[in-house]
Amino acid sequence: MKLGRLLKSIPVVRFNGREDEVIQSIHYDSRTVTPGGLFVAIEGHRLNGHQYIEEAVEKGAVAVLTEHEWSNLSALSVIQVEDTRLSLAAIASAFYGNPHRDVCMIGITGTNGKTTTAYLIESILNVAGVETGVIGTINYRFG
C-alpha cells in the first residue's frame, strides 16, 4: 500500500519523504523489520523505540513513524506525529483494509458471569445463523 494512502488516516505533524513509497509491512519491533517495512518508534516505560530506528533502517525499513524530529536519512520517509501508539492503530487498520467495519463486536465486563454470558450470546447468535467467535480466559474459538 502506498504511504500517502496510509498518511490520510493520521494527523501528521511533519513529513519528509515520498508519498508514493510502497509499504509492504508495519513493525513496532525493529527485530521484525523486513525490506519495504514501515517502522513505528514507540516510547515505552523501559525501552524507547526511537533508539532502534537505525537498526530498522539497516533491516530495510523505507519509512519511520516517530514522535521526535529525525534527520532524514537517504531515501527514507520520516513521518512525525504527536502519538505513535495512536497512529500505529490507525495506520494498521488502514493497511489491513479497516476490518473492524465488517465485524460486530460485543464486549462483556464485570466481576462474575462473563463466560456464561459470552456462551449464551454465542449460542443465541449461532441459532440465528450468525457466525461467531469467542475470546476469553477459558479459551478462544471461531466457527
Would you mind describing this structure in some detail?
With 143 residues, the protein is α/β, with parallel strands linked by helices. It is built from four helices and seven strands. The strands form two sheets. It has a five-stranded mixed beta sheet. The chain is elongated and about 55 Å long. The two termini are 30 Å apart.
Query: Structural class of the secondary structure composition?
Result: alpha/beta
Query: Low-confidence parts, pLDDT < 50 over ≥5 residues?
Result: none
How many angstroms separate the termini? 30 Å
Number of strands: 7
Shape: elongated
Largest sheet: 5 strands, mixed
Secondary structure: elements and pairs:
Layout: H1 3-7, E1 14-16, E2 25-27, E3 37-40, H2 53-58, E4 63-66, E5 77-80, H3 84-95, H4 114-127, E6 133-135, E7 140-142
Keywords:
two-stranded antiparallel ribbon; elongated; 143 residues; alpha/beta
Short summary of the structure?
The protein is of the alpha/beta class and 143 residues long.
